[in-house]
Specification:
Structural class: mainly alpha
Low-confidence stretches: 4-17
Radius of gyration: 26 Å
Largest sheet: none
Order of helices and strands: HHHHHHHHHHH
Mean pLDDT: 84
Number of domains: 2
Length: 235
């Protein structure tokens, strides 16, 4: 038989736990917080993932999940509390909310393939394994487009947008080694500098002959400006 003192102690503990839970789930900066506007029907990205646009979709989805403070659910940083934890049910709510957002961000056929994922992390990894693997065909297509692109009938703004998109695609398909020794080695810095230099030259090469004088003036500058400065100069 539970004594009066034990009943009071249990009540006090329950109240403390509930207050602690409320302070967490009602804190907008906490990862387990859900805003009243958050619902399973939210569509976080403007373009649904169809398998061909995985790289850009993943980046857009990461940005959206950061804004929602839920990126850690798909990256594995926020793991489920122990089953007896008062936060376990709230974690389940948040995780299922993220799964709903993923389902709404992909086309129907792909959504059906991840519908029964146990966690948002599991669904995210399934998509990465299926569509994130780099193959030679994708790399060839991007490299070919980079070799063929030029301004032609496009405005400078449209031309720059198109070539910048191809650069981003190419960079997402290749791996550039990074140094973890506390500072980048001189060779790594030189490699990144060479890539930026090549992008600058490619942009200038693709410009129409109307920009011949501007192109010559830019190439005479020492040191060469970065690509964003060159873009503004050509405008």
């Amino acid at each position: 038989m539970i004594s009066w003192a034990e009943s009071i102690a249990t009540l006090v503990v329950n109240n403390v736990v509930q207050e602690s839970l409320d302070s967490i789930v009602n804190n907008p900066s906490h990862v387990l917080f859900l805003h009243p506007s958050d619902n399973p029907n939210n569509i976080l990205v403007s373009e649904l993932m169809n398998g061909e646009n995985y790289v850009h979709w993943r980046k857009a989805m990461e940005v959206a999940l950061i804004a929602k403070n839920k990126l850690s659910f798909v990256l594995g940083g926020c793991t489920r509390p122990l089953p007896l934890s008062p936060l376990a049910s709230q974690w389940d709510r948040c995780d299922k909310m993220v799964i709903s957002w993923l389902l709404n961000a992909v086309i129907k056929d792909i959504g059906q393939s991840i519908l029964f994922s146990s966690t948002a992390r599991d669904a995210w990894l399934q998509l990465a394994r299926r569509f994130g693997e780099v193959d030679s065909t994708k790399l060839f297509r991007v490299q070919r487009d980079l070799c063929l692109i030029s301004q032609n009938n496009m405005s400078v703004a449209d031309y720059f947008t198109q070539i910048k998109k191809l650069w981003d695609d190419y960079n997402s398909l290749i791996t550039i080694l990074h140094c973890n020794c506390g500072g980048e080695r001189a060779s790594l810095v030189a490699a990144h500098k060479l890539i930026r230099h090549q992008q600058l030259l490619q942009f200038l090469v693709g410009l129409n002959e109307d920009y011949k004088i501007a192109r010559g003036s830019i190439l005479m500058m020492k040191p060469l400006p970065d690509i964003d400065q060159v873009y503004n100069m050509t405008l």
